[in-house]
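Colleagues,

For the teaching module next term, I've prepared a clean inverse folding example: a structure given as tokens, and then the sequence designed for it. I'd like students to try predicting residues themselves before seeing the answer, so please don't circulate the second half yet.
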């Protein structure tokens, strides 16, 4: 099994995170997949942005949930990163899926519902993925255990992943009890024992956020299913060499 190189919010070290330039660059650099984050707008449309608030990555203020998609589309989501990316716009999930549809990319969509538990977020995202026939190569991940359970009830075949940075001895069993098919762990939780346990239970294990050469090599050598990295070009080259 080859470890998938998954671009964390796109090639986010070289372009503004969760924007089309970051996704296009990641694809050009040889990423196997794209990871992105979904919040829900005031008019119930999934939009790609990591934070619940707008301040860090746009010229807006307040919360994503208080704006319509059309209002959010007026914001500049690139100048904070570099003047070169001035006037880069936020993407809706639908726009992202249109872009990804004809590319051989694995997709990881993180539902950002651990701080604001958006009503029906799972159903809305699931419906879109089904419409675009992309369920078979998409993982839906979340830190929210209740969200994993909701996804499992929606469709037991959903590739749902439990995200965590917390150490616990029964992590695999706990994730299974929620209905998860995978665990996505912070790098410091990674161990050969955990990888072996996941293999035995046929549970995928992916690691975030892996940018250092030694860490990338370790994940590949341990045969993790995937790594989330801000430097997909670098990780791709290391994977080829390994």
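(Answer key — instructors only)
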């Amino acid at each position: 099994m080859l470890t998938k190189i998954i671009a964390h919010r796109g090639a986010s070290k070289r372009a503004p995170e969760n924007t089309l330039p970051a996704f296009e660059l990641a694809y050009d650099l040889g990423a196997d997949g794209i990871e992105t984050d979904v919040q829900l707008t005031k008019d119930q449309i999934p939009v790609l942005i990591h934070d619940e608030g707008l301040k860090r990555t746009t010229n807006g203020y307040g919360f994503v949930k208080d704006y319509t998609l059309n209002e959010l589309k007026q914001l500049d989501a690139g100048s904070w990163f570099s003047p070169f990316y001035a006037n880069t716009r936020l993407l809706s999930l639908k726009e992202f899926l249109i872009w990804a549809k004809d590319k051989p990319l694995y997709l990881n969509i993180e539902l950002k519902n651990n701080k604001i538990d958006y009503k029906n977020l799972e159903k809305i995202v699931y419906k879109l993925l089904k419409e675009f026939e992309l369920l078979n190569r998409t993982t839906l991940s979340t830190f929210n255990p209740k969200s994993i359970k909701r996804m499992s009830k929606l469709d037991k075949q959903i590739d749902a992943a439990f995200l965590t940075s917390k150490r616990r001895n029964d992590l695999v069993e706990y994730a299974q009890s929620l209905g998860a098919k995978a665990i996505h762990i912070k790098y410091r939780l990674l161990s050969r024992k955990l990888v072996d346990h996941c293999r035995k239970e046929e549970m995928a294990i992916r690691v975030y956020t892996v940018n250092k050469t030694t860490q990338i090599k370790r994940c590949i050598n341990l045969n993790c299913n995937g790594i989330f990295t801000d430097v997909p070009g670098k990780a791709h080259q290391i994977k080829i060499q390994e």
